[in-house]
Amino acid sequence: MSLAVTADILRTLHRLHQQLADLKDRLAAGPRQLLARGKLLESSEAARTAIQDNIKKEKVSADQKQLQLKSDEAKILNLDSKLNACKTNREYQTLREQIAAFRMATKVLEDEILEALERIDAVKKMLPAAESEVASIKKQLADTRSQIAGETATLEAEVARISGDLTCAERELPADSLESYRRVAKSKGADSLASVEGESCGGCFQQITGNMVAELKMGKIIACRSCGRLLYLAK
After folding, report:
1. Which whole-number Å values give the CA distances from 140 to 40, 132, 167, 181, in the listed order?
2. Which pLDDT score, from 0 to 100, does residue 208 have?
3. Nearest to 230 by CA among 221, 138, 220, 18
């Protein structure tokens, strides 16, 4: 087999391997995009849920304080009704002190309830933005899924075509070199071949020997001693 034919075959094989690797990378990128957007949606939904849970928590707290306030107010009314029935000053004074304590407690509860309602209003204002973000990411995810579905069929067809071209090109290799080529191609894929620029491997940029260059010029197929790539002379 002549030098030109051998170099052309290896050059074609290298190009096809690179095209195939690029297509497979593009195919793999689709699921990665979907995974990334899915995680983004999970994070956004978790943030929205946290806001909703915070609102519920503050409402429960406010409701409990409201019930406590009503209970204390009822106790105040009950104690007030007993004042006129007191038989001693000590009893009267004790009731007045109890009423004062309950009124102080209700004042604290009223302040706490007001603060809780203000917190609820503040957190509620955050909810529309969180809802909007979730909706936006859901739409982006749906659009991305649709786009990838459309691209996948085209990419898979290209992979099949290039794979077929690669199989045809491999048949042009000398029979005594085919096994070595397949072994390297299986382990290195797109990095299984490299051109020789001057006297250096185009893959690892290590210098090759003069004897290796001479063998390449004779049309032999040899591998770089540093990286293992099959070498061919550049045009």
Report:
1. 11, 12, 39, 44
2. 93
3. 221
Q: Which helix (H) or strand (E) holds 194?
A: strand 193-197
- Within its chain, how far is the Cα of 51 from the centroid? 22
Adjacent-strand bridge partners of 195:
232
**DSSP state for residue 220 in the 8-state scheme:** -
3-state class of 222 per DSSP?
coil
- 106, 73 contact by CB (below 8 A): yes
Q: Which domains does the chain have, with CATH numbers?
A: 26-171 (1.10.287.1490), 173-235 (no CATH)
Asked if 11 contacts 232 with a C-beta cutoff of 8 angstroms, the reply is yes
CA-derived radius of gyration, the chain = 40
Average pLDDT of span 160-177: 91
pLDDT of 102-145, one tens digit each?
999 999 999 999 999 999 999 999 999 999 999 999 999 999 99
- Contact between residue 88 and residue 16 where contact means Cβ atoms under 8 Å apart: no
Instruction: Give CA angle at 183 (177, 188), nearest 5°.
Output: 120
